[in-house]
Every structure is written in structure tokens, then in C-alpha cells.
């Protein structure tokens, strides 16, 4: 794998391969010594133009457990805040010998620009770009679902035939955008659920159905309900009247939780607004995978860094 | 080359006939077969198409204020390389062209260049701020004779201010050239709103934001009996509204850019900011509709919206990049590819939409008649059978933000005459001192 920019260009086989390597990585994490020598001598730069402690430390843990050297570059207080361009930052990292750059950027497409620019030779991992994609989140989500469904015999399998309801602010969600392509590649069906203002108008050709009615979606018995974080500032842009109305119509409250099939999984990429898009009881229930998602995130990112940095490079 | 007489031998005219064209002291003195050279410099034009010098109603020359992108000299060189002999300079310079003094300064910079006539456009509102009218009358009576006013880059979105502007310019046969973009519907917009923008996670610029303003403006124009020009029409819905307005007899004219005739929004998939422009590249259906609108006369002209930017404003993430593309050097070839090679229009229509009609809309005195005896000797010789890989060497301005780099485009400008002075010969720009000397000689004799 040369770069990981988007899940849209992952084939079913490539996706399953990453998930299988993530299984191998997860297994090493149950050993007493969890550190592998695999990426010794490689340098991974976490280039974060947006604050995201959770994602950054997950990548940092993944790289360190593979024995890579990790450099954290945060835009705040750096040359970037003094107006340095992406181009100059990239060329600086190139000169310092970065083998992989994990980039989080507020501008959609910034990882593509970096990968296509010729400014830097390193492998690029998209750790979330604007409202575009967040591919490692989708990989860890698929990994989590697959483990819940198939347990120890997950290897080699897809997510065929299951239905995943993604609920909330689809319009601005890079998590939803990465999940829809990966779920489709793995054979799952996606339903986008939310207020019409927060579900994109133009979805022609997308492997997703749309519903504005969470109760109807729950009645159709989905295998997974993935709740997305609602930014309260969306309210000021007239996307919905107020948090109370949002929670009433599109929140996973206790009453809706009770109506889910017993084996339906509840997911959330975090950080959660308890009481808004998800109730505490839903978040903490045994069907919730919120904490597994965090642990699996490290395994999935280890797999991505491993595939990017070890073995033959395909240019 | 100090001779001011030229005989273009054996050129093909836009109607398909063959003729010699005689140029003396900046004017066309003869069109016919077997003309005598009378000591003129003979230019072999056999097999070349002769068109009236192209007129661009929508050029950003960037000077004063943004000389790292373009100057009047480099912009008019780009114009000459593309076969243009007159460019209308948009007002969004710094300072903004909103007073008589500033439009006269722009005019003078054009005269000093000599590569093309620069006709300033005045701002509608002071500083393009959209708050109060600029001194439209003073600009109209200045030496620059401004008849077209535009806040291009910004929409005159306040309906009352737009009404007043349309009314006021009636006093001197002016027109308002509107950049139709409802600002509230395009907050943070990055590209055409559609499936591609949804997939790329880029904030959409919906077609309705253009169409709503055009609909409002044609109604205002009808109400006050004035004249409206719509800049860079980009959507199928806009074409429908303008078609309806013209059928009602409303005095509206419209332009489309070359890039909206050829390119579509899926080019953004590369996140290559050379394809970022405002209004954005639209869908294939929109491209089809603006082509049909140009072919049936709903859209009157092609105008380039030539918008130079230095590398650092394009060499970055898409949302951080500037809007705009250079277009003067490629315009004729793009119209050739999108409209002529597709059989939608003839070369005589090209002469209309790229020269005669824009001169008339801009009220250029004594121009807009095409190649006729007695008219100013603005002529372009174009090799319709050539084809070229369009590259940076095809550009003559200061900036290289062309969306066509690496594409194959038909045709090639072989020669351009501006006021009877060659600015391009054998496909190459003539040196500045020679052009200046030629223009001085013409002015002295004229």
C-alpha cells in the first residue's frame, strides 16, 4: 500500500487483507510484551493541523508498538501558525526523512494534495480531512463489527448481508463518508438517518439508503446502529431548531434502545454528547462497542502503518 | 518592422470565401481578391482563417495592486497571443477602479502597452463594498468612456442598490454586468453542489444561488427599463431564465466562459486547485445547456474571465486555494473544440460571439462591425487545421494557472494585428519596443 487516502479506492480483497492484518496486530496486543520490532528505524510523523488528541494518540500508540520513531507535529505554536504553507511543511518533513506522514487537516483533500504534489516521498495516511474522509475510523469500525459478528473466526470474512444505520450529521461527517464505501466493499448495506438538513441532497449512485425516521429504521431491525456526534453549533446555522428536538427525533434514547434487536450493536466514534445523540444507558450497555472501538483503533492503525512501511513499495 | 502597410494574402474569411486584406495606417483599406501590394509587407495567409480581432468583455489585469499575478503589459501580451485586440479590464484592482481618475489610469496603462486596447470597467459600488454607488457618471464622462459597470467577484446582492444602479446608468447608455451569486446561499462554497461535492466533502455552490439572482435582476431590468449583462453564466437553469427574459423583450445580454463550455465538476476529484473557479465548473448537463444557449443566441458572447494567480495561491489544499483560471491564450482554441468541432456554430458565429457582439455590448465606438473596409485593422489569423499540446510555453501572461496544461487543443493563432500593428507574427509575440513604435506611428498618421 503506497498511501491510505480514502476507503473509496479499497477493493473487497484489499479491505479484508487490512482487517486480517489488524487481527494479527490485535493478537500481539494480548501478549505480555506488546512491542514488535517490525518498523524499527522508520520514522512516522503525526502532522496534525487540527486538534484531535484521541486520533493522534491512537496513531502514536500504533507506531510505537511497531517500534517506529514518532514525531508529533502540531500546527499550533509551530511555523504553520506563522503562515507556513502545506508545501513548505511537507518539504521540511521530507528533508527530515519521514517515511510516513499521518495527516489530519481541516481542508478536504489536503492528504490527496500532499500525496500527489511530489513535495514529499513518504507514504500518506489520511487521519481525517475536513468533511471528506477518515479511513482508519472506518477500518476500525468494520473490524469491530466483524469481531462482534464472527469472533475468533473473523479472518477472511466480509460483512455480507448486514445493515448498518448511520445516524446524525451525515452532511459534515467524514466518518460516514469513509464508512459507506468500506461497508459497501465488504457487502454490508448502509442507511443514512438524520434530519433532511443534515443528510446530503445529492447521493445519486451512492450505496446508501436514506431515512428521516429513526423509529422506522429501528423497526426494520438493523444489525448496527452507529450514532454520530452532533456539533451544537449546527443549531446556529438553522440545521435543526434546538438540541431537545434533535434528541427527541434522532437521539438513541433509552426507549429506542429497548426496541433494538438483542444482538444489534451500538457504535459511536466519540467523543459522545451523552443525552443528545446517545443516552448514557445506550453508551454503557453491553451492546455498545464504544470502548472496543478505541482499542481496535490501535490495531487497525498498526495494520495500516505496517502495510504502508514494510515490504515492497508499489509506486 | 516599421512598415505600417500590410497585405494579408489569400486569407479565408469567416463566411468561407477567400480574400486579400489590405491594412494601411491602422485601418482596413481593402478586402478582395488580387489586391495590389503597393509596397506593403505581404503576409501569406493562405489556408488561414481571418477573424476580426477578438474582444474580451471580462478580463482581470490585476494592475494596480496585484502585480505579482499580472500587469496590464503582461495581460495584454496574453491577450495578443490569444488573438484578442481589446480587453475589458474588471474593476477589482487595488485600489478598486471606482473613480474617473482610476479608470483613466487603467486606460493609460493599456495605451502604454500597445498589445491590445484596454477598456476599463467601472465598479458599481465604492470599493466593491456593496454599500453605495461609485461615481458612475464621472467614469462615463471620463476619457475612459466607461459604459459597463461591475462589482465582479462580488454580487450586487442588495436588491434596492441593484435597482438604483440599473436606473442610474440609463443616463449614459450604460449597463450593469452582474456577478450573479446569492452570498448567503454560497457561504464557504468550494465547488458545484452535487454528487461530486458530496463525495469530496467540499462545500457546495448550488445552481440556485446563480439562478435566483439572474431571475431577480431580469425582473428589475424590465421594471426600470434598463440594460443588464450577466457575467459567466454557468447553469442550465440560468440559460432557461435568460431565454425567457429575452422572449419577453427584456434588454439582457449574457456571457459564458470557455471553461464552462468545456470542463466539468468531476475534474475536482484530483483536488487540483487549477480547476477551482468561481462560478465553479458545473455538471455535464449544464455544459450541454450553455453550449445550446450560445448556439441559439440566448447567450450572446464568450468572455474569458481571465483570472491570473501566482503559484502559491494554487499550490495548496483546494479549500485554501484562490478561485480563477487564466484564459486569454486558450479561449479561441477552446471555443473551436467545444462549439465548432461539435458542429454547434460556424466560424461566422465565432466572429460574432468573440468579437462583434462583445464590442457592441461594451459600446466600443466604431467597433463591432467585423472585418469591413474602413474599420479599425484589428485582425487575427488563425490556423484551424493545427493542433497543439497546450503547455506553459503556450502562455504569455505572468501566471500559469491554466486548466488546459497537458491537454490537446485544436487551432493556433498565427498572427494578430492591433490597430494595424502586428502584435503576433508567425505564432510569436512581437517585441514591446516594436509594438510601441508601430502604435506611435499609427497614432501620428491617424
UniProtKB/TrEMBL annotation, chain A:
Where in this chain does the record put each Aspartate/ornithine carbamoyltransferase carbamoyl-P binding domain? 2-146
Pfam families in the record: OTCace, OTCace_N
Q: What enzyme category does the UniProt record give?
A: transferase
Which Gene Ontology terms of cellular component type are present? Answer: cytosol
Aspartate/ornithine carbamoyltransferase Asp/Orn-binding domain segment(s): 160-308
**Which Gene3D superfamilies does the protein's record reference?**
Aspartate/ornithine carbamoyltransferase
Keyword set, alphabetical order = Pyrimidine biosynthesis, Transferase
- Pathway noted in the entry: Pyrimidine metabolism; UMP biosynthesis via de novo pathway; (S)-dihydroorotate from bicarbonate: step 2/3
A molecular function (GO) held by this record is: amino acid binding
Which InterPro entries does the entry link to? Asp/Orn_carbamoyltranf_P-bd, Asp/Orn_carbamoylTrfase, Asp/Orn_carbamoylTrfase_sf, Asp_carbamoyltransf, Asp_carbamoyltransf_Asp/Orn-bd
Positions annotated to bind carbamoyl phosphate: 54-55, 104, 134, 137, 270-271
Q: Which reactions is this enzyme annotated as catalysing?
A: carbamoyl phosphate + L-aspartate = N-carbamoyl-L-aspartate + phosphate + H(+)
Please give the biological process terms from Gene Ontology that the record holds. 'de novo' pyrimidine nucleobase biosynthetic process; 'de novo' UMP biosynthetic process; amino acid metabolic process
Binding-site residues for L-aspartate, renumbered to this chain: 82, 174, 229
Return the EC number: 2.1.3.2
Q: How does it assemble?
A: Heterododecamer (2C3:3R2) of six catalytic PyrB chains organized as two trimers (C3), and six regulatory PyrI chains organized as three dimers (R2).
- Function, please? Catalyzes the condensation of carbamoyl phosphate and aspartate to form carbamoyl aspartate and inorganic phosphate, the committed step in the de novo pyrimidine nucleotide biosynthesis pathway.
Q: Which family does it belong to?
A: Belongs to the aspartate/ornithine carbamoyltransferase superfamily. ATCase family.
> Which PANTHER family is this protein grouped with?
ASPARTATE CARBAMOYLTRANSFERASE, ORNITHINE CARBAMOYLTRANSFERASE, MITOCHONDRIAL
Q: Which HAMAP family match?
A: Asp_carb_tr
What's the name of the protein? Aspartate carbamoyltransferase
Give the source species.
Answer: Labedella populi
TrEMBL record, chain B:
Designated name of the protein: Dihydroorotase
This chain's function reads: Catalyzes the reversible cyclization of carbamoyl aspartate to dihydroorotate.
Cite the binding residues for substrate.
Answer: 60-62, 92, 278, 309
**What is catalysed by this protein?**
(S)-dihydroorotate + H2O = N-carbamoyl-L-aspartate + H(+)
Task: Write down the required cofactor(s).
Answer: Zn(2+)
Locate the active site: 305
Tell me its family. Answer: Belongs to the metallo-dependent hydrolases superfamily. DHOase family. Class I DHOase subfamily.
Per UniProt, the keywords (alphabetical) are: Hydrolase, Metal-binding, Pyrimidine biosynthesis, Zinc
Which pathway is this protein engaged in? Pyrimidine metabolism; UMP biosynthesis via de novo pathway; (S)-dihydroorotate from bicarbonate: step 3/3
Q: Which Enzyme Commission numbers does its entry carry? A: 3.5.2.3
Q: How is the cofactor bound?
A: Binds 2 Zn(2+) ions per subunit.
Q: What molecular functions are annotated in GO for this chain?
A: allantoinase activity; dihydroorotase activity; zinc ion binding
Q: PROSITE patterns annotated for this entry?
A: DIHYDROOROTASE_2 (PS00483)
Amino acid at each position: 500500500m503506497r498511501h491510505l487516502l480514502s476507503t473509496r479506492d479499497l477493493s473487497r480483497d484489499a479491505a479484508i487483507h487490512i482487517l486480517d492484518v489488524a487481527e494479527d496486530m490485535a493478537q500481539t496486543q494480548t501478549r505480555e510484551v506488546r512491542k514488535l520490532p517490525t518498523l524499527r528505524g522508520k520514522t512516522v510523523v503525526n502532522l496534525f493541523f487540527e486538534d484531535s488528541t484521541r486520533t493522534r494518540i491512537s496513531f502514536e500508540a500504533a507506531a510505537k508498538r511497531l517500534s517506529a520513531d514518532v514525531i508529533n507535529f502540531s500546527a499550533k505554536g509551530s511555523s504553520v501558525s506563522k503562515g507556513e504553507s502545506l508545501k513548505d511543511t511537507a518539504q521540511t518533513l521530507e528533508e527530515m526523512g519521514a517515511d510516513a506522514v499521518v495527516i489530519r487537516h481541516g481542508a478536504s483533500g489536503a492528504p490527496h494534495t500532499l500525496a500527489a504534489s511530489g513535495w514529499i516521498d513518504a507514504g500518506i495516511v489520511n487521519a481525517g480531512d475536513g468533511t471528506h474522509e477518515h479511513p482508519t475510523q472506518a477500518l476500525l469500525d468494520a473490524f469491530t463489527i466483524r469481531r462482534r459478528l464472527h469472533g475468533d473466526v473473523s479472518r477472511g470474512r466480509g460483512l455480507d448481508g448486514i445493515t448498518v444505520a448511520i445516524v446524525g450529521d451525515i452532511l459534515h461527517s467524514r466518518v460516514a463518508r469513509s464508512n459507506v464505501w468500506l461497508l459497501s466493499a465488504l457487502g454490508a448495506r448502509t442507511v443514512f438517518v438524520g434530519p433532511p438538513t443534515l443528510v446530503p441532497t445529492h447521493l445519486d449512485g451512492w450505496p446508501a439508503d436514506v431515512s428521516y425516521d429513526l423509529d422506522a429504521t429501528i423497526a426494520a431491525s438493523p444489525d448496527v446502529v452507529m450514532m454520530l456526534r452532533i456539533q451544537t453549533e449546527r443549531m446556529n446555522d438553522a440545521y435543526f431548531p434546538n438540541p431537545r428536538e434533535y434528541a427527541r427525533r434522532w437521539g438513541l434514547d433509552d426507549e429506542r434502545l429497548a426496541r433494538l434487536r438483542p444482538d444489534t450493536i451500538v457504535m459511536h466514534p466519540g467523543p459522545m454528547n451523552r443525552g443528545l445523540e446517545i443516552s448514557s444507558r445506550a453508551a454503557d450497555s453491553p451492546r455498545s462497542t464504544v470502548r472496543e472501538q478505541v482499542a481496535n483503533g490501535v490495531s487497525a492503525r498498526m495494520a495500516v502503518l505496517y502495510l504502508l512501511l514494510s515490504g515492497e513499495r508499489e509506486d | 518592422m516599421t512598415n505600417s502597410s500590410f497585405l494579408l494574402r489569400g486569407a479565408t474569411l469567416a463566411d468561407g470565401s477567400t480574400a486579400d486584406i489590405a491594412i494601411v495606417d491602422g485601418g482596413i483599406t481593402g478586402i478582395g481578391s488580387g489586391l495590389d501590394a503597393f509596397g506593403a509587407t505581404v503576409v501569406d495567409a493562405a489556408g488561414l482563417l481571418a477573424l476580426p480581432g477578438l474582444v474580451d468583455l471580462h478580463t482581470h489585469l490585476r494592475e494596480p495592486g496585484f502585480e505579482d499575478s499580472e500587469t496590464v503589459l503582461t495581460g495584454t501580451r496574453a491577450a495578443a497571443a490569444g488573438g484578442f485586440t481589446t480587453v475589458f479590464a474588471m474593476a477589482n484592482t487595488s485600489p478598486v477602479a471606482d473613480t474617473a481618475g482610476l479608470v483613466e489610469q487603467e486606460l493609460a496603462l493599456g495605451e502604454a502597452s500597445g498589445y491590445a486596447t484596454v477598456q476599463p470597467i467601472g465598479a458599481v459600488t465604492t470599493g466593491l463594498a456593496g454599500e453605495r454607488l461609485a461615481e458612475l457618471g464621472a467614469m462615463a464622462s471620463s476619457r475612459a468612456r466607461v459604459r459597463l459597470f461591475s462589482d465582479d467577484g462580488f454580487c450586487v446582492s442588495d436588491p434596492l442598490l441593484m435597482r438604483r444602479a440599473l436606473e442610474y446608468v440609463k443616463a449614459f447608455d450604460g449597463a450593469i454586468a452582474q456577478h450573479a451569486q446569492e452570498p448567503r446561499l454560497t457561504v464557504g462554497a468550494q465547488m458545484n453542489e452535487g454528487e461530486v461535492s458530496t463525495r469530496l466533502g467540499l462545500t457546495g455552490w448550488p445552481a440556485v444561488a446563480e439562478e435566483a439572482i439572474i431571475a431577480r435582476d431580469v425582473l428589475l431590468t424590465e421594471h426600470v427599463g434598463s440594460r443588464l449583462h450577466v457575467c459567466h453564466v454557468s447553469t442550465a437553469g440560468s440559460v432557461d431564465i435568460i431565454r425567457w427574459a429575452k422572449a419577453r423583450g427584456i434588454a439582457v445580454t449574457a456571457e459564458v466562459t470557455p471553461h464552462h463550455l468545456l470542463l466539468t465538476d468531476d475534474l475536482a476529484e484530483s483536488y487540483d486547485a487549477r480547476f477551482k473557479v468561481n462560478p465553479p465548473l458545473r455538471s455535464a448537463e449544464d455544459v450541454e445547456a450553455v453550449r445550446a444557449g450560445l448556439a441559439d443566441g440566448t447567450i450572446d458572447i464568450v468572455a474569458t474571465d481571465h483570472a491570473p494567480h501566482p503559484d502559491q495561491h494554487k499550490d495548496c489544499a483546494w479549500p485554501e486555494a484562490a478561485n480563477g483560471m487564466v484564459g486569454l491564450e486558450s479561449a479561441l482554441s477552446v471555443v473551436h473544440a467545444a462549439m465548432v468541432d461539435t458542429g454547434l456554430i460556424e466560424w461566422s458565429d465565432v466572429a460574432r460571439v468573440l468579437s462583434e457582439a462583445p464590442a457592441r455590448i461594451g459600446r466600443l465606438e466604431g467597433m463591432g462591425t467585423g472585418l469591413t473596409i474602413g474599420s479599425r485593422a484589428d485582425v487575427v489569423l488563425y490556423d484551424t487545421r493545427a493542433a497543439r499540446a497546450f503547455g506553459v510555453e503556450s502562455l504569455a501572461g505572468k501566471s500559469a494557472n491554466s486548466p488546459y496544461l497537458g491537454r490537446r487543443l485544436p487551432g493556433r493563432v498565427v498572427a494578430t494585428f492591433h490597430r494595424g500593428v502586428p502584435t503576433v507574427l508567425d505564432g510569436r509575440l512581437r517585441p514591446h519596443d516594436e509594438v510601441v513604435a508601430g502604435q506611435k506611428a499609427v497614432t501620428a498618421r491617424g
